[in-house]
Every structure is written in structure tokens, then in C-alpha cells.
């Protein structure tokens, strides 16, 4: 009977298929009910194997999920600990953007372009231009050639003066992207003078900006300063007898136009304490100083470059922001009272501040030396001067330098596209 049922049920055919593909699970035709147990034992290894596979897969999934969650947690922790630059004060930005002396400067420029030199006091500021009325110019043959106000030479200088002053006044506006153009505007002309034609837009690998503070006499930084690719010095500060303290190398002489105004009194506008081949970069303190620039530029062997007025405006706004911030925090007074405390229209950044800004634009690394003061130190290491000029806010500028060193603080008015290089301040 079982065999008949088996045939009817197709068990033989089923068993044949099993024996063909899985012979260890095949059931003999003659098996009875007693032999049913061995079949169950033979299935257990397969179920056991499947359970192991499921268990391993579960552990793998749990591990992947845990790692994913852990990585997300770590990323979130990293994001939390990344210092975010503090927001700039909108009110301070608004006040810092106002140039109190702008209208007065425009009027002065227009008077100069019209040939109106104003009062006798104004005439006394043009000491260098006495050469055109009272001084003689000697040619190679030692013949005395008087240069009067009616001479062709004076007329040529006058046309050049009007052109450079007009171009400078036309570009005098706020443009934060000017920082990215400093290499093209200043470094490339200097490279050409030094015979480095193929330098393109490569920045200096390292720059040392050497200030004139008396604190330089407390350290022997000379060798370290000279190890930089470029060394920027300020306002013709002497290095003779101070080489151990301040070094001897000079790549760029950075001066304000008052320095050139004094140099213009000398024969051939001599203004080269570091050598006649050292380039001079100058910012204009007074529009009238373009008279000195026009005369002296023709006699200089090395480039005599004037900073772009857009760069000047940017520096002025940055320093004013820090000065306003310091004034409010330390005095608790209203912003409107800042002007009377800082000579208003006469307020200006220092030569050192703009030299640091220049280095930020043309150098991959910036080192700052000789910035700061001490009660026991001179104001300048090479003079006996102790007092500071009230038209500068040195404390505000020091706060700016420390923000540069910090590297995580937002600098007002700088373009987001400009990347500030690493800065080190040596005390």
C-alpha cells in the first residue's frame, strides 16, 4: 500500500530529484516510518548554517550602523569645536566707512589741479618746489641751468603732477578686492627691476616687516629677520650699528610721503639709506606731496611706487573700525564722541600698519618685528623720541595684529575671497 501511494503521490520522482541534486538528503524507497528521524537530522546542518549566516549578517549590519552613528557623532563634535569667527558689529562698520575728511581732501585736490596753492602757509609746505624758483640744476657739463616757474622743465613737471594727482583722485574709493591685486601692482614692478621677469604672480615665500619700536633693542632678531625672502623696513630707519638687533637686509623701503618731502630738499632727492637700488613704496599723506613725487621719481634708479588709493581707503577703514571698537569698550562713550578724541579728519593709520597690510597681499608667510611698546623703551629704536603721534591709534592697530595672529577672527572690510596668510608677531 505505501508503494502504491508513493507512486500516486510522486514520491519516487521527488526522491529522485533530491538524490540527484542533494544526495545526502535522499530517502531510500524502502524506508519505513522508523527511518523518518534520520531525515530530520540531515536537515539540521543546513538550518544551522543558515542561522550562522543570519547571525553574522546581523552582527555586520549592527557594526556598520554603529560605525555610521559614531562617525556622525564625531563629525558633529568636530563641527562644534571648530571656532567660528565672531560677527562684526554692523554699527561700527557703518561708522568706520565714513571718511570725515573726504570733502576737505576733494577740495584740496581740486585747488591743486587748478594751480591754486592757497595761503602762504600752503606755500611753506612746498619746500621742495623752491628748486624751480630759487635753485639751479646742474647738467653733466657742469653748466648751471636755472629752472624757473616759466621754464619748459617746470611745465613738464607741472603736467606730470596734474596727471598723477588726477589719476590718484579718480581711483580713491573703497574696493576690498584690491588686496588680491597687490602682487600685480607692487611686487611685479619690483621683480622686473630685480631682473625676475618670469616670477609672474608668485608671492614672496616669507616676509619680515620690521617696525621701529624701541623694544627691538631687547632681542637679537637680526639673523632671523635676514633669513626671510623679503624684508620690509619703515620710514628710512637706520640699520647701521643695529644689525644684530634688526638685521641688515632690505628688500622694500616703505615710507610715508612726509619722508620723501624731506628727501626732496636734498640733491637729486636722495632718499636711499638702504642703497640706491632698493625699491621705495610710499603712501600719500597729503595730495600736495605728489609735487615731490613728480620731481624725485625721475632721479631714482629703483622704482618709486605710490600705493593704490583703494588700498589706502581699505587700510583707513580697518584701523578706524578697531579704534571705534576700542573707544566704546574703554570709555563707554557714544561713537559720535570718537572724532573729538582722535583729531577727526587728521586720524590716520601708521606706516607700520599699511606695511603689514602690504605683506599680507604679497607674501605667503608674514613675520612682524618691532611692533609694540614698553614703558622703559624708546618710541623708535634709532632715535630718542618717546612720545607717540596722536593722529595714530597704536593700541587699536595692536588689536588688529593680534587678530591676524589668531587666524580665526573676522577682519572688517576684507573680501571673503582673500585668504590671510599665517602671521607671527615677535615681541
UniProtKB/TrEMBL annotation:
Species the sequence originates in: Senna tora
Family: Belongs to the glycosyltransferase 29 family.
Chief localisation class: Golgi
One cellular component term from this protein's GO annotations in UniProt: Golgi membrane
Tagged with keyword Heme: no
Any Pfam family matching the protein: Glyco_transf_29
Topology class, membrane: Single-pass type II membrane protein
Location of the protein in the cell: Golgi apparatus membrane
Lineage of source species: Eukaryota, Viridiplantae, Streptophyta, Embryophyta, Tracheophyta
Swiss-Prot/TrEMBL keywords: Glycoprotein, Glycosyltransferase, Golgi apparatus, Membrane, Signal-anchor, Transferase, Transmembrane, Transmembrane helix
Stored CDD domains: GT29 (cd19952)
Protein name, entry field: Beta-1,6-galactosyltransferase GALT29A
Chain segments annotated as transmembrane: 46-65
PANTHER family, A to Z: BETA-1,6-GALACTOSYLTRANSFERASE GALT29A (PTHR46779:SF1)
The keyword Acyltransferase is annotated on this UniProt entry: no
A GO MF term: sialyltransferase activity
